[in-house]
Amino acid sequence: MIETSDEQKILLTNLRRVVKDKIEPIAGETDIKGTFNWDVVSLFWDLGLLQIMLPEAYGGWPHNPCHTLCLSIEEISKACASSALLLVIQAVGSFPLISAANQQQKEKYFPRISRGRELMAYLVSEPGAGSDVQAILCTARRSNGSYVLNGRKVFATNGSVAGLYSVLAKTGEKELSFFVVERNQDGITIGKVEDKCGFRGSNTSEVILEDVVVSQENLLGKQGDGFTIAMADFDMSRPAVAALALGIAEGATQYALVGHSRRSNTIRT
Ligand SMILES: Cc1cc2nc3c(=O)[nH]c(=O)nc-3n(C[C@H](O)[C@H](O)[C@H](O)COP(=O)(O)OP(=O)(O)OC[C@H]3O[C@@H](n4cnc5c(N)ncnc54)[C@H](O)[C@@H]3O)c2cc1C
Predict the structure, then answer these.
(1) How far apart (Å, rounded) are the C-alpha atoms in residues 19 and 6?
(2) Which is the most buried residue in 83, 87, 163, 220, by most CB within 10 A?
(3) For the chain, which domains are there?
(4) Which of 155, 168, 200 to mutate to test ligand 1, by most ligand atoms within 8 A of the CB atom?
(5) pLDDT for the residue 260
(6) Hey, whose CA ends up nearest to atom 50 of ligand 1?
(7) Which SS3 state, helix, strand or coil, does residue 22 take?
(8) pLDDT digit string, tens, across residues 199-217
């Protein structure tokens, strides 16, 4: 078991207060309306929560960032799963950059995320490809030193609110590669925004890529590294998703035991 550091304890104390004052009171309404709440996003940027996984120079958490991410997600999801999912997908969407970007890409994109407060989205799933990542059909065809992306991505969390996408595409018959792509680029349209049963305050949409031209400088890692990066990203994010489920279960248990108005901020003392 990993010990919670003094810095993490301070973060969690502050977070419990913020969750109680700012997140919990609006969680029910967020769920009913199914609207994306930019105020919560701003609040999380202010608290440094959407930067946790970035390198320290860009506002990231210096020690055990994955552990800090999980603790924060658990705490938030006790009150609002949609808000906690913001942290999960910011980490998942940034991971291809964090793990595979070259120095030039880091200097270009990390300030945009950290200081520019741009949300990330992770465009992997497609109508015929979920668990089986290799089954994607989205292609990235080389043309005059650039790549031309075509495909249809589904279930993209932050799909219509993120500034930057990490996109997985086929660069060969059995070869996958990741690209960093700007949402406002020509050829990108937002399809259906999902009206979900849960996580209703989280934005989940289709993203359609039609002849989206990106430079070779948008390729993350080497051509063909995509599958390895995607699997490493899942390894990073599985504990975060588990923390999300744990927090939801803890919140639900507390709600069942003492009801909404008297819900304490943690049942794990
Ligand atoms: C709220 C929400 C947000 C999401 N956000 C994103 C996102 O930001 N980016 C993104 O790319 N995707 C996202 N997804 C998609 C998600 O990653 C996929 O739903 C997930 O990968 C499962 O894929 P699938 O739905 O196609 O199910 P399938 O892959 O078809 O799986 C269906 C069932 O079959 C089981 N199964 C699959 N393969 C096997 C096997 N070989 N052996 C035994 N059992 C198997 C699975 O465990 C599951 O129970 C999101 C989904 C939801 C619901």
Answers:
(1) 20
(2) 83
(3) 6-114+229-258 (1.10.540.10), 120-223 (2.40.110.10)
(4) 155
(5) 61
(6) 155
(7) helix
(8) 999 999 999 999 999 999 9
Please tell me the distance between residue 119's alpha carbon and the centre of ligand 1 in angstroms.
22
Atom of ligand 1 nearest to the CA of 121: 8
| Ligand 1 centroid from CA 130, angstroms | 4
**CA dihedral for 26, 32, 33, 36, sign (positive or negative):** positive
Those residues with Cβ within 8 angstroms of residue 158's Cβ, 6 or more apart along the chain or in another chain: 86, 89, 90, 93, 119, 120, 121, 202, 203
DSSP state of 199: -
Specify whether the CB–CB gap between 261 and 28 falls below 8 A: no
Alpha-carbon gap, residue 74 to 102, rounded angstroms: 32
36-66 pLDDT, tens digit each: 999 999 999 999 999 999 999 999 999 999 9
Task: Give which of 46, 91, 37 is closest to 68, Cα–Cα.
Answer: 91
Kindly state if the Cβ of 54 falls inside 6 Å of ligand 1.
no
Q: Find out whether the beta carbon of 155 lies less than 6 Å from any atom of ligand 1.
A: yes
Atom 26 in ligand 1: residue holding the nearest Cα: 130
Task: Give pTM, 2 decimals.
Answer: 0.94
CA neighbours within 13 Å on the CB side: how many for 253? 10
User: Tokens representing 173?
Assistant: 């018959």
Distance separating alpha carbons of residues 106 and 109, to the nearest angstrom = 5
